[in-house]
Design goal:
The protein has helices spanning about 1-20, 35-40, 70-85, 100-105, 165-180, and strands at about 30-35, 45, 65-70, 85-95, 130-135, 180-185, 185-190. The protein is an alpha+beta fold.
């Protein structure tokens, strides 16, 4: 009987060891990861992988949302929260290699619209996302402007808008800030991840970043 009890306790101990998350298995928060490996339910519309953007040029070789692991997990938290309301996220842009930031600056060297690559942007750090809301069918909710609209209508303090648009903008802001994201006052779609200032500017090509967790 004592032997059986000992074997049962031993088996239970091994089960607990294997079932509990092991620290070595946790993602390094600074690692660049593909959002699909964290939450594949987040919709993508990566505009710089197409010509549907303000420079009308395809700049990204792949339509991927790459983020620092900690920021990706923040974004996954937002998606999970929104799903309880029948909503979700659609992402326009995430990590942007510094070399592509330089190309953008060559096209439009105006820091009102493009971050100077001499300093780098939060996108270059893998710590910023451009997002909007979609319903359960994937249809975008009405927002003040389209993506990368540089008029005053894109600002968070612009309120001469339909009531439903104002509610949608606020819903996005609330969902993102609850997870620790910081909004940008001039662009309703742009949010910086918590601790973005702790990440360095990177120029890692998309193809060098694993798509698997």
């Amino acid at each position: 009987m004592q032997l059986l009890r000992f074997l049962f306790v031993l088996a239970l101990s091994f089960s607990i060891v294997f079932l509990l998350p092991h620290p070595s298995h946790a993602l390094n928060p600074t690692l660049l990861v593909d959002i699909r490996s964290i939450n594949p339910r987040i919709a993508l519309d990566i505009r710089y992988a197409t010509t549907n953007n303000f420079v009308k040029q395809k700049l990204y070789p792949q339509a991927r949302c790459i983020l620092r692991a900690s920021v990706a997990q923040q974004l996954s938290q937002v998606q999970t929260d929104l799903e309880t309301r029948g909503l979700g996220l659609k992402v326009y842009d995430c990590y942007r290699p510094l070399s592509i930031q330089r190309r953008l600056w060559e096209i439009l060297p105006d820091d009102r619209y493009v971050a100077n690559p001499a300093n780098g942007s939060r996108h270059n750090r893998g710590a910023a996302v451009d997002v909007t809301l979609v319903d359960r069918t994937g249809k975008e909710l009405p927002m003040p402007t389209g993506f990368d609209d540089f008029t005053e209508r894109a600002s968070l303090d612009y309120n001469n808008l339909p009531a439903q648009v104002l509610r949608n903008r606020q819903l996005l802001q609330d969902a993102m800030t609850r997870a620790g994201f910081i909004p940008l006052s001039t662009e309703w779609w742009h949010f910086d991840g918590r601790g973005w200032q702790n990440f360095s500017v990177r120029d890692v090509p998309f193809g060098a970043i694993s798509s698997a967790r």
